[in-house]
Amino acid sequence: MNDIDAILARLRDAPVHPGLATIDAAVFDELAARAAAPPLSARAFGVAAVMALAIGIAGAALPGTSARAAPISPLGAPSALAPSTLLGTAE
Fold it and tell me: CB of 78 within 8 A of CB of 85?
Protein backbone atom coordinates (compact mmCIF):
# COMPACT_ATOMS: atom_id res chain seq x y z
CA MET A 1 0.00 0.00 0.00
CA ASN A 2 3.03 2.24 -0.24
CA ASP A 3 2.56 3.03 -3.91
CA ILE A 4 -0.94 4.46 -4.36
CA ASP A 5 -0.28 5.21 -8.03
CA ALA A 6 0.31 1.52 -8.78
CA ILE A 7 -2.85 0.55 -6.93
CA LEU A 8 -4.92 3.11 -8.81
CA ALA A 9 -3.40 2.00 -12.12
CA ARG A 10 -4.39 -1.63 -11.39
CA LEU A 11 -7.90 -0.48 -10.55
CA ARG A 12 -8.09 1.54 -13.77
CA ASP A 13 -6.95 -1.43 -15.85
CA ALA A 14 -9.31 -3.90 -14.17
CA PRO A 15 -12.37 -5.02 -16.17
CA VAL A 16 -15.68 -3.31 -15.46
CA HIS A 17 -18.08 -5.25 -13.25
CA PRO A 18 -20.94 -6.69 -15.36
CA GLY A 19 -23.55 -5.56 -12.83
CA LEU A 20 -22.89 -1.91 -13.67
CA ALA A 21 -24.69 -2.32 -16.99
CA THR A 22 -28.02 -2.92 -15.23
CA ILE A 23 -27.73 -0.42 -12.42
CA ASP A 24 -29.19 2.48 -14.43
CA ALA A 25 -32.45 0.65 -15.08
CA ALA A 26 -32.80 -0.29 -11.41
CA VAL A 27 -32.23 3.30 -10.26
CA PHE A 28 -34.71 4.75 -12.76
CA ASP A 29 -37.32 2.10 -11.85
CA GLU A 30 -37.03 3.02 -8.17
CA LEU A 31 -37.27 6.75 -8.97
CA ALA A 32 -40.43 6.13 -11.01
CA ALA A 33 -41.96 4.05 -8.20
CA ARG A 34 -41.29 6.80 -5.65
CA ALA A 35 -42.70 9.48 -7.96
CA ALA A 36 -45.88 7.43 -8.44
CA ALA A 37 -46.47 7.09 -4.69
CA PRO A 38 -49.36 9.26 -3.47
CA PRO A 39 -48.32 12.37 -1.54
CA LEU A 40 -49.38 12.90 2.06
CA SER A 41 -52.78 14.49 2.43
CA ALA A 42 -53.61 17.68 4.26
CA ARG A 43 -55.33 15.56 6.91
CA ALA A 44 -52.05 13.76 7.69
CA PHE A 45 -50.27 17.09 8.15
CA GLY A 46 -53.12 18.33 10.34
CA VAL A 47 -52.94 15.27 12.58
CA ALA A 48 -49.18 15.66 12.90
CA ALA A 49 -49.55 19.36 13.80
CA VAL A 50 -52.19 18.64 16.46
CA MET A 51 -50.05 15.86 17.97
CA ALA A 52 -46.99 18.12 18.07
CA LEU A 53 -49.02 20.88 19.72
CA ALA A 54 -50.44 18.48 22.32
CA ILE A 55 -47.00 17.06 23.13
CA GLY A 56 -45.58 20.58 23.45
CA ILE A 57 -48.35 21.71 25.80
CA ALA A 58 -48.03 18.53 27.89
CA GLY A 59 -44.28 18.96 28.10
CA ALA A 60 -44.60 22.57 29.20
CA ALA A 61 -47.24 21.71 31.80
CA LEU A 62 -45.22 18.99 33.52
CA PRO A 63 -42.95 20.22 36.29
CA GLY A 64 -39.28 19.89 35.51
CA THR A 65 -36.20 19.49 37.66
CA SER A 66 -33.83 22.32 38.33
CA ALA A 67 -30.79 22.49 36.09
CA ARG A 68 -28.60 23.04 39.15
CA ALA A 69 -29.60 19.67 40.59
CA ALA A 70 -28.02 17.73 37.73
CA PRO A 71 -24.22 17.60 37.36
CA ILE A 72 -22.96 19.50 34.34
CA SER A 73 -21.01 17.05 32.24
CA PRO A 74 -21.52 16.36 28.53
CA LEU A 75 -20.50 12.71 28.86
CA GLY A 76 -22.29 11.80 32.10
CA ALA A 77 -21.03 11.83 35.64
CA PRO A 78 -17.35 12.79 35.93
CA SER A 79 -15.05 9.94 36.86
CA ALA A 80 -13.08 10.13 40.09
CA LEU A 81 -10.00 8.82 38.27
CA ALA A 82 -10.14 11.22 35.33
CA PRO A 83 -6.78 12.88 34.57
CA SER A 84 -8.26 16.31 35.25
CA THR A 85 -9.10 15.29 38.83
CA LEU A 86 -5.76 13.58 39.45
CA LEU A 87 -3.59 16.50 38.30
CA GLY A 88 -4.80 18.88 40.98
CA THR A 89 -4.15 16.53 43.91
CA ALA A 90 -0.39 16.81 44.34
CA GLU A 91 0.54 15.82 47.90
Answer: yes
